[in-house]
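As the work plan foresaw, our protein records have gained a structure token line. A representative record is set out beneath this paragraph:
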Amino acid sequence: MSAIWKPMYRVPLVAFVLALPACSAFGPFSEYEKSLIYKPMPTSVTEAKIECNVRRAHYDWLLLMIAQRDEKGWDDKAERDVMISDAWADYQRARRIGCSGWE
């Protein structure tokens, strides 16, 4: 019998599986961020590379801003949440396009 089906692992697994749809339905993304993630795919390789570079630059900038503000302190917790969800949206879009170096 697989270890995952042992009783001590079964309860957390079932809880995770039941909570997963709720997390995706009430996820951290606004409608704007969802539209960024699910916008149409680039039609050419050149467009995909350009979008990958733009996403990477924005993602790196957001991580730098988050790190700086973690050191100096945040003015508003909502601003932090927006930056983190923007960075996550960039990451998800890059994975969807197939950008390399995002693993």
User: Anything to note?
Assistant: Residues 20-26 have pLDDT under 50 and may be disordered. Residues 35 and 92 are 12 Å apart (CA to CA).
